[in-house]
Design brief:
This protein is an alpha+beta fold. It is built from 5 helices and 8 strands; from the N terminus they run βαβαββαββββαα. It has a single domain (about 10-205), classed as Maf protein (Alpha-Beta Complex). Strands 1, 2, 3, 4, 5, 6, 7 and 8 form an 8-stranded mixed beta sheet that branches.
Length: about 210
Amino acid sequence: MKINVAAAVVKTYVATKNAGKLAEMRAIFAGSVLELETYADYAAVVEDAGDYVGNALLKARGLAGALSAAHVAGAVLADDSGLEVDALDGRPGIYSARYAGAETSWERRRAQLLAELSGLPETQRDARFVSALVLILAGGDVLSAVGFVEGRIVEAARGSGGFGYDPVFLYPPRGCTFAELSAADKNAVSHRRRAADALLAALRERA
């Protein structure tokens, strides 16, 4: 499907029920050709693809199917993201939102992560956030992109901003956690921003 990105606005439904993620995605894609919307009847899917892109594709296809059944036109955007900790052999990774149990609070997940890393020196606490974005256009074409940001896990949660693992993820160039950054500052450097930039570049190449 060819898109004139200079002229068209693509109404795009986001496959998420995570309010924090949705707010970030709207901020990151603000001013782009993608006009993000929510779909009240989106139902979460089983994320069993085994990697970030696969899980994002499952979410996107789930919402695309619901929109088609309801005769709603538009593109679909989905994200799957996670935190990879080197000392934990890449865990929690794609299971980040289910770490310590699917119904566990984020505070409990962060506490368990810190407990697993207790006693490790700063040099052994390297980690990265990963984001995979999948866009399904109205004609059925699929684009995907992945973004990373490197950092470290701090010894105690810091900051009140962001969501998820942001309070324990130190961004070394700024010397603070993602939760200590303003939303604008975080969105300028995050894994999701990098994935979004790559996705929009791929979309422009199709024009």
